[in-house]
Design the sequence.
């Protein structure tokens, strides 16, 4: 029976493969079918095997062996062709059943990792478990609540892809290449002179941000991006459709003005600066490793609660929104979710430390007024630190997109980073040319995100969803190969 013979080949180990070429083995003393016909059917049989086996040499070997067995046992040409066709049909059917099973498993896996829609999200307005919502936001850094709150009993985590997540952690050297601060820097005192990152005017920080005598100035700029387009697509560009590049112009997406037409369509009473040098960032507000922070805040889990906590938050997705103040680029909103459950663990506005808030970056951040003490769900920077120190430690895998920006405003150093911008951007050579999250969301999840301002909770979720999708796809491929 051909089916019996085929099963015999299913366990042929790769090492024993002898038939590298797709040629029929001679049948002695004579074969019931001509050699050229055998070659034809062997090709068809191999085609079926190759659809289910990724390693072509194994597919060839199995096809050659099977065709030989069929030919050896067939009494006539008709018997030979019938058995070969039946064999091909069986392979096709087996492949279809395998595909269905895999599809079913993938669906079940996805069910195990539910995603949370914006509408379903619920998060306690109390910024700290030990504080009532009303008093929490008024807690200053000097009176930080004792971080010894007993943790609630952990829910049993659903099966997750966590075990494979560590494979995606980006090596430290690569993170450094991508401007991540991975070690505590030496303090570098900055010059007083700064260049506005918007209008490129040079200004004196001490003069501009004199808190007693705040001087206003005029900073004109375009908040949008500059794009290259043909004349016909620009407002007032005329009806003529000019495709020649020489007639192309650069225009701003914010106001459709051409480059150089005006100094800017937006005006602010102050210039803004954004230090990049880790030492200068450290001068404005110090960096801490997550372990250093936990030690400073004296967060010590006893053995039992440590295990419970780890079972709860083993990996997080995080995203921050920032604003410009007299202290540079500061945290204004933080959103984080638990990798296993996709439930929000942080979703709070944050009061900037700088007294003078110059620009809320509303077009991106979606924040339109300066977060103040007493606003529900609003935290101070130090309260955010307490929450993160309680929820995470050096073993926590932190997932995000362009995380160096988020971690630099948090001034936190985490050793285990999964960054979708580093891992999945098309350009893997130039760290300056990373794909935006919007592009990856479309590519991996077919989701159209960030249509206007950013939803930081969505920006925290999407990288986690991308990572899960990549891990699930890798699992499917592995199953296919091992068949
Ligand atoms: Zn503009
Ligand atoms: Zn400016």
Sequence:
């Amino acid at each position: 029976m051909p089916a019996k013979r085929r099963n015999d080949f299913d366990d042929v180990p790769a090492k024993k493969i002898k038939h590298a070429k797709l040629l029929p083995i001679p049948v002695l003393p004579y074969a019931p079918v001509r050699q050229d016909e055998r070659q034809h059917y062997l090709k068809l049989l191999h085609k079926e095997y190759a659809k289910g086996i990724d390693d072509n040499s194994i597919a060839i070997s199995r096809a050659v062996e099977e065709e030989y067995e069929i030919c050896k046992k067939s009494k006539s040409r008709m018997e030979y062709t019938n058995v070969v066709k039946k064999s091909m049909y069986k392979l096709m059917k087996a492949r279809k059943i395998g595909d269905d099973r895999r599809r079913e498993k993938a669906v079940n896996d996805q069910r195990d990792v539910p995603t949370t829609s914006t509408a379903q999200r619920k998060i306690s307005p109390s910024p700290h478990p030990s504080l009532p919502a009303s008093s929490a936001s008024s807690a200053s850094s000097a009176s930080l609540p004792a971080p010894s709150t007993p943790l609630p009993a952990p829910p049993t985590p659903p099966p997750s892809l966590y075990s494979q997540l560590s494979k995606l952690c980006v090596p430290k050297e690569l993170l450094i290449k991508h401007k991540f601060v991975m070690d505590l820097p030496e303090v570098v005192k900055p010059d007083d002179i700064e260049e506005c990152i918007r209008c490129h005017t040079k200004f004196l920080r001490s003069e501009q941000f004199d808190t007693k005598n705040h001087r206003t100035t005029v900073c004109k700029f375009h908040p949008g991006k500059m794009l290259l387009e043909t004349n016909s697509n620009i407002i007032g560009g005329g009806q003529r459709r000019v495709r020649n590049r020489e007639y192309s112009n650069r225009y701003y997406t914010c106001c459709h003005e051409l480059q150089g037409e005006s100094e800017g369509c937006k005006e602010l009473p102050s210039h803004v600066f954004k230090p990049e040098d880790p030492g200068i960032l450290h001068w404005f507000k110090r960096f801490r490793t997550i372990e250093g922070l936990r030690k400073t805040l004296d967060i010590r889990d006893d053995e039992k609660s440590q295990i419970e906590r780890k079972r709860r938050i083993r990996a997080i997705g995080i995203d921050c929104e920032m604003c410009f103040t007299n202290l540079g680029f500061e945290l204004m909103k933080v959103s984080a979710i638990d990798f296993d459950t996709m439930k929000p663990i942080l979703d709070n506005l944050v009061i900037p430390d700088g007294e003078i808030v110059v620009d809320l970056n509303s077009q991106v951040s979606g924040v339109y007024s300066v977060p103040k003490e007493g606003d529900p769900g609003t935290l101070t920077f130090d309260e955010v630190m307490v929450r993160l120190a309680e929820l995470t430690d050096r073993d926590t895998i932190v997932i995000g997109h362009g995380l160096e920006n988020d971690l630099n405003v948090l001034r936190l150093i985490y050793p285990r980073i999964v960054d979708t911008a580093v891992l999945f951007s098309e350009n893997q050579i130039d760290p300056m040319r990373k794909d935006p999250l919007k592009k990856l969301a479309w590519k991996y999840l077919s989701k159209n995100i960030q249509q206007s301002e950013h939803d930081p909770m969505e920006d925290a979720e999407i990288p986690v969803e991308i990572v899960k999708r990549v891990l699930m796809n890798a699992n499917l491929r592995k199953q296919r190969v091992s068949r």
Observations:
- The pocket of zinc ion (ligand 1) is lined by residues 222, 224, 252, 254-255, 257, 265 (CB under 6 Å).
- The first strand starts at residue 193 and ends at 195.
- The radius of gyration is 31 Å.
